[in-house]
Write a structure and sequence with these properties.
Oligomer: single chain
CATH superfamily: NAD(P)-binding Rossmann-like Domain
Number of domains: 1
Protein name: NmrA-like domain-containing protein
Radius of gyration: 17 Å
Structural class: alpha/beta
Helix content: 40-55%
Order of helices and strands: HEHEHHEHEEH
Organism: Armillaria solidipes
């Protein structure tokens, strides 16, 4: 990813965005953290978004079983997570002044997969 970042900075891109996860914390040796550290070292405008779970992931990860079997398959049982919508990231992209920081993005409430299935059923029939 470093060559890509170097290229866009060289081409005068003023603002970069990195999407990682809420589980990314200081000292966690994953690529996203190294990229964030590199962005900081360049002194370039950036925002790091750390969502708990994007609602649109259901379209990628679960779409086939939702459409084909009318179910969401998960090993999380009754576990609940905060699910956010992509539109909450808009200000990080559109604000004139760079945020130059990380944002943990969460939803308004904790939802289980059963809760999400109920929302889909209410909206889609």
């Amino acid at each position: 990813m470093k060559p890509f970042i170097d290229l866009v900075v060289k081409e005068c891109v003023k603002h970069l965005m990195l999407v990682t996860a809420t589980t990314m914390v200081d000292g966690y040796l994953l690529i996203g953290l190294k990229v964030h550290e590199y962005l900081l070292s360049l002194n370039v405008g950036h925002a790091v978004l750390r969502p708990s779970w994007f609602f649109t992931h259901f379209l990628m990860a679960h779409l086939q079983t939702i459409k084909g079997k009318n179910m969401i398959i998960s090993m999380s049982g009754d576990g609940k997570i905060e699910i956010t919508s992509d539109d909450l990231t808009v200000s990080s992209l559109t604000d004139k002044k760079s945020h130059d920081m990380g944002h943990i993005i969460t939803g308004l409430e904790l939802l289980s997969y059963d809760d999400v299935a109920t929302v889909f059923t209410e909206m889609l029939g």
